[in-house]
């Protein structure tokens, strides 16, 4: 489904989403370029941040280009294989985002609670291993969704209540073996939803406990400020994610479901570079040095 049936709105929607897509891609590319070109940022935290930016570029690229093409061609049709491909890549990069955010929370926990052992514990081998594990878990999540979707037999000439092949909307099309599908969904949500959230909450519980032992209020603020950008991004992801999927479960309006999906899939990746660049002196300094070198 499109966001609007009004033909007069189509050029506006095209311009709006093209602008948001370009801002997202360019913003995240700038972060990747800044981190890779500045030796001061070759640390575990910025290694995870650059991988998060790469995942965000891939994340938004699974949905928006197809929507832009649909607006231009005045057709919202997608092939069976195309839909499965879009759903698979979307699931991989959504899961990657959550896994990387969990790894970043662990990084902040080690940096604040074990500062003397930080470089030893967060060595390059462990950082690379955490990204590899995140990708493999995301791949497994995508495979599980594919196996459930492939059991749907009547999958022709159907209308999906979203502007892309949303896994949650596709599973609603299933008419057979709903019980086993629900069981698998609950297991996936428990593992891929609650596990990262539990890891993030545990890390910040330890961080807050450590910060409270600092005597001066200035010291507390300085230490906790290193977590501000990460907390803002986590809140943005979880807020829009839960809003999108709880809204789709509670609302029977396809348009409202589509709008909630836009907030999660388009707005969130676009805001991440702004959150990290505006709140982070290191990133702003690296971008200034990068610009001065180019000039």
How would you sum up this structure in a few lines?
This protein has 295 residues and is mainly α.
Structure description:
There is one protein chain. The protein has 295 residues and is mostly helical. Helices cover 79% and strands 0% of the residues. The mean pLDDT is 81.
Descriptors for this entry?
79% helix, mainly alpha, 0% strand, 12 helices, globular, 295 residues
Task: Write the SSE topology.
Elements: H1 10-37, H2 44-61, H3 64-73, H4 80-113, H5 118-121, H6 124-150, H7 167-171, H8 178-212, H9 217-225, H10 228-250, H11 254-279, H12 281-294
Helix pairs in contact: 1-2, 1-3, 1-11, 1-12, 2-4, 2-11, 4-6, 4-8, 4-10, 6-8, 8-9, 10-11, 11-12
User: What sequence of helices (H) and strands (E) makes up the elements?
Assistant: HHHHHHHHHHHH
Number of helices: 12
Beta-strand percentage range = under 5%
Uncertain ranges: none
**Class by SSE composition:** mainly alpha
Helicity level, as a percent range? over 70%
Integer-rounded radius of gyration: 21 Å
- What is the typical, i.e. mean, pLDDT? 81
What profile does the largest beta sheet have?
none
Cα separation of the termini? 45 Å
Number of separate strands: 0
Assembly of the depicted chains: single chain
Q: Based on Cα principal axes, name the global outline.
A: globular
